[in-house]
Amino acid sequence: MIVNGVLFPSSLANLLAFLVDPDHGDYSYGLLLFRQVQNASSTYLWNTIIRGSSRNGRPTTSIDLYGELRVKGLRPDSHTFSFLFKACALALDLQFGKRGHGEAIRFGFESDTFIADSLIHMYSVFGRLDDAKRVFDGMVAKSVASWTSLVGVYAKVGLVDDARRLFDEMPERNVVSWTTMIRGYSECNREMEAMFCFREMMSVGVKPDSVALLSLLRMCARLQNLDLGKWVHQFAYKEGIEMNDRLAVSVIDMYSKCEDVYSARRVFNDMPRKNLVACNSIIDGYCKEGKVEDARLLFDQMPTKDLISFNSMIAGHVQSGQYKEAWTLFCDLRVTNLKPDSYTMVSLLSACANMGALDAGKIIHSFIIVNLIETDVFLGTSLLDMYAKCGRIHEAMLVFGSMTQKDVLAWTAIISGLAMHGRPKTALDHFAKMQRAGIKPNDITLVGVLTACSHGGLVEEGRLHFKQMQDTYLLTPKVEHYGCMVDLLGRAGRLKEAEELITSMPMEPDAIIWASLLAACRTHNNVFLAEMAAKKLLDLEPHKDAIYVILYNIYASMGKWYDASKTRERMENAGIKKECGRSSIMVHGGVHEFIAGDKTHPRFEQIQAMISEISRQLMVAGYVPITSDVLLDIDDEEKEHALFFHSEKMAVAFGLISLPANVPIHIMKNLRVCRDCHSALKSIAKVYNREIIIRDRSRFHHFRGGLCSCNDYW
């Protein structure tokens, strides 16, 4: 056409309209063609390119083009303003939208229905109810679109009842009107009314379209209502509603969030084009069901990935305990053009917290600061939780103090952290501050509060907070709260009260309840209650080794060797083996794990020499091994030797020969620290002037200067 000189205005307009159509055109070529037109003065051409830019996902270009049109002195028409207001809504540019509104009035279009509809829609996007209502009230002839847009504004600002009253006043309604009302109910968490509205729409003969079903599917995904979601999917199939990409993705997302990844995958497989959003939904669904390998297979096959893809996959690895894979994937993310966000950081901090990987957690914290990632309340809570679980409660408190916003999760995290670190009174002080700040505690907060009372032996305070759960906070105690109270009473030696509390529980006691009572019986040598608790535990968890071990230890410590041997015999006949105590320490980025008496470590000879030196130094300092903890038929010298090769002592010895003198020794243990190790570690901390931090399965122990943070109440 160009070569033959037949590019007339009419043919140019048709060609441009074709090129900027997002379904089958080529926007870049269309924009280039428009720029080549000399002295383009046709408003129709300008309108075509302004509208086409927005439809191709470039609303800011539409706004810029409108500015060029005005600079050239061309007069916009009603279509120009309509397309401009839609572009402002897409670009979230309210300021330019209001400027355009003023220009539309100056050009005499204030009563134009077409422009008014677009204006109300634009103001609805920004939730500007007063502006939208002012435009609506000024309209001479109100269209269905204007009524619908105003209904949408009311719903958007949370006035869903006012939206319904306006909806009922509408002289005419179409499928968009009904969909707007359904979406309003759904977004205000009024799901039943959304469903009633959907049924009402069908009863008056209005056939729902894919947009109406999108609102219902999003609601089902949010509620994790699989049955309703399946019904919506089947309805779309029966009614012959086209399964376009948006609808297919919503169906996949619904199934994934409802943890029916098999159905999600079937819909995904039927899609002719697998888009990025659909792939991300499937990956998220696989990860939620624990099928991380399937998720990773799909992830690796994806030709393109966005940040959501990486975040979902990293979170999946973390939730499955695959921390190394999560960290490796984060390294892969960093070499792309994608920038990690707060969601990425939260997953990685969770991994560090679970591993007790303080050094890695510090690297993530530095990354957040250097890359100016906004530390919102969610990320701040993850940071303080990481420091608390890595043994650095002081740093956790600093992070908490620096947070400008604190929600119930942040307060709960710091209260629980202080409780686990043996600072019960500080934990309760923070609980009081939380109440003064007007933050209402939840049931998890009260678990932290009761744990603090239990670890500090604060029996009366614990009773008070347990009572206030229902009286003050209107929270019904759950089995976890009863477990904390049984632990509190048991540690304090009030075994009869603990038993009475268990019998008065409104729900069936679980294994944790009976395990708490059994542990207390071990501490206070109550054989009768121990036997009862063990029997209840064996009914619930017949293959749990700890039950047999504690019962054996109680019998042995009281000299009831016949009962002890019978307990061991039952354990052996059931094929149950005692779980080995394992202690791990991170040195120079590597994790070193020790088992009692294990000689496989490459530096075992040095560790053995260090243990011998520790033994000599402790004996000089007056340490006396608690050989009664070794319930074996061997002489005292052999018992002392066995005690010094417990896993935590081996880990401490390795820390002493591997870490600088000013670096605290951090150790993680899978079981509780035994009495002898606890006594020895206090002496080691004093003799070697080192801080030793041990995280066992129930709490933290900070050893400094011959003392422990638990005050020997553990």
Automatic annotation (TrEMBL):
Residues 1-17 form the signal peptide. One of its GO terms (biological process) is RNA modification. One of its GO terms (molecular function) is zinc ion binding. InterPro entries: DYW_dom (IPR032867), E2_motif (IPR046849), E_motif (IPR046848), PPR_At4g14850-like_plant (IPR046960), PPR_rpt (IPR002885), TPR-like_helical_dom_sf (IPR011990). Keywords: Repeat, Signal. PPR repeats lie at residues 42-76, 143-173, 174-208, 275-309, 407-441. The keyword Acetylation does not apply. It holds the Pfam family PPR. Residues 622-714 form the DYW domain. The keyword Repeat applies. PROSITE patterns: PPR. Transmembrane segments: none annotated. It comes from the Eukaryota. PANTHER family: PENTATRICOPEPTIDE REPEAT-CONTAINING PROTEIN, PENTATRICOPEPTIDE REPEAT-CONTAINING PROTEIN-RELATED. Belongs to the PPR family. PCMP-H subfamily. This is DYW domain-containing protein. It comes from Nymphaea colorata.
